[in-house]
Design brief:
By secondary structure, the chain is low in regular secondary structure. It is 3% helix and 5% strand. The longest helix is centred in the C-terminal third of the chain and has 10 residues.
Length: 468
């Protein structure tokens, strides 16, 4: 009978080998999807006698049952000496029942129960020896109960409990050794209580508490080591208090506080390192005070302050680097002062200042780069002065100046020949002076305005349509 030193070299019938002398039995990938035809856990034909006796010496169970989508229960093998359980049951999504215990010798639990969405019961205690818990219980949507203590030895909590939407209770303390908290508690919708302190060693907080809308209390200090805060507190609707300082090292604040409508106080300074502010403070309707300066590095301001109806003061300068102003200040009805210059690189101004009813002064020039002016100034009822010329890239002017009834008349030139929609562009312009709109003859733009006005003139809107 042949003798082997590592079980992964067994390719045929296991009974043909003497495994009693294996010093460190290795179960790496032994029962996984690829090897399932040779190593059937449910058939003694392919297993040596007293197989479970030999597994007690196994230290490596990494990927042992990886992708075994046919498994319905956790096999009853002795894993008491295992060190590595990374990917052991990863993607075994038909597994049912509860997790009985984790061996005290384990150090690596990366992806151990990844996508085991039908496991039930509580999470057992995590041994103090564990260092890696990235994606350990990712998408285990039917696990219940509270999260056990996290050992002080753990360094990675990347997506550890992501989508564990039936876990309850408070979040335990986070060990000081942890560096990554990317999506750690993402969509853990039934967790309650306060957010614990964030260790100074953490660098990535993207999605950490996203959609944890039953968490309460205030946001703890953000360590200076953090660089990414993408969707960190997205839709945490029950968090209260003010927003802490954002570290100078942070680059991304996409969606960071979006939907946190119970946060109060002023918006802190935005670090110069930030490049994206997509929906950063959207729907934070109880934030007050003025908008801080926008760093020159920012390119995306899509929905940044949408729905921040209690912000006051004037709009700061918009950096030349910005290209997207889709709904940036939509429904910021208490902002005052003039609209700043619009950067030449901006392409979308869809609803940028919609319902900013307390803005005053005249509308600045529209850059040639802009293509969409739908509802851009709609509801800006205190804007005054004439209407600027429309550049040649514009394709849509639906409700662009609707309810802007303090804008004056004069001549407006539309240099675009491809405006396909002009519906309600000047809705409720009943008391303004005569406006002459000049378009290219027989262009799509001319036809769109002709349909909207019901001809070349409209007495109720006091508009005349003319051609170049």
């Amino acid at each position: 009978m042949a003798t082997v030193t590592n079980i992964i070299h067994i390719n045929n019938v296991v009974k043909d080998y003497d495994i009693t002398s294996v010093p460190a039995f290795n179960m790496y990938g032994f029962f996984n999807y690829t090897n399932r035809t040779n190593h059937d856990i449910n058939s003694s034909q392919y297993l040596p006698e007293n197989f479970n006796v030999y597994t007690t010496t196994a230290k490596q169970w990494s990927s042992a049952f990886y992708n075994r989508t046919d498994l319905t229960s956790i096999p009853n093998y002795n894993m008491e000496n295992t060190v590595n359980m990374s990917n052991t049951f990863s993607n075994c999504y038909k597994l049912t029942g509860s997790i009985s215990n984790i061996p005290n010798s384990v150090t690596n639990m990366a992806n151990t129960f990844y996508e085991c969405r039908n496991l039930t019961g509580n999470i057992p205690n995590i041994p103090n020896s564990v260092t890696d818990m990235h994606r350990t219980f990712h998408n285990c949507t039917n696990l219940i109960g509270s999260i056990p203590n996290i050992p002080n030895s753990v360094t990675s909590m990347y997506s550890t409990f992501k989508n564990c939407c039936n876990l309850t209770g408070n979040i335990p303390n986070i060990p000081n050794s942890v560096t990554s908290m990317y999506s750690t508690f993402y969509n853990c919708t039934n967790l309650t209580g306060n957010i614990p302190n964030i260790p100074n060693s953490v660098t990535n907080m993207s999605g950490t508490f996203s959609d944890c809308y039953n968490l309460t209390g205030s946001i703890p200090n953000i360590p200076n080591s953090v660089t990414s805060m993408y969707s960190t507190f997205y839709n945490c609707t029950n968090l209260i208090g003010s927003i802490p300082n954002i570290p100078d090292s942070v680059i991304s604040i996409f969606n960071t506080f979006c939907g946190c409508y119970n946060l109060t106080g002023n918006i802190p300074n935005i670090p110069n390192s930030v490049t994206g502010m997509y929906r950063t403070f959207a729907y934070c309707s109880n934030l007050t005070g003025s908008i801080p300066n926008i760093p020159d590095s920012v390119t995306n301001m899509c929905q940044t302050f949408q729905g921040c109806s209690n912000l006051t003061g004037t709009i700061p300068n918009i950096p030349d680097s910005v290209t997207n102003m889709y709904e940036t200040f939509k429904n910021c009805c208490n902002l005052t002062g003039n609209i700043p210059n619009i950067p030449n690189g901006v392409t979308s101004m869809y609803s940028t200042f919609l319902n900013c009813s307390n803005l005053t002064g005249s509308i600045p020039n529209i850059p040639n780069s802009v293509t969409d002016l739908r509802s851009t100034f709609s509801g800006c009822s205190n804007l005054t002065g004439g209407i600027p010329n429309i550049p040649n890239g514009i394709t849509n002017m639906y409700q662009t100046f609707a309810n802007c009834y303090n804008l004056t008349g004069g001549d407006m030139y539309i240099f675009s020949n491809k405006v396909s929609t002009a519906i309600s562009c000047f809705y409720n312009r009943n008391n303004a002076s005569m406006l002459n709109i000049y378009c290219y003859e027989n262009s799509t733009t001319y036809n769109s305005f002709n349909r909207y006005l019901g001809g070349t003139s409209n007495a109720s809107l006091n508009i005349q349509l003319k051609t170049f």
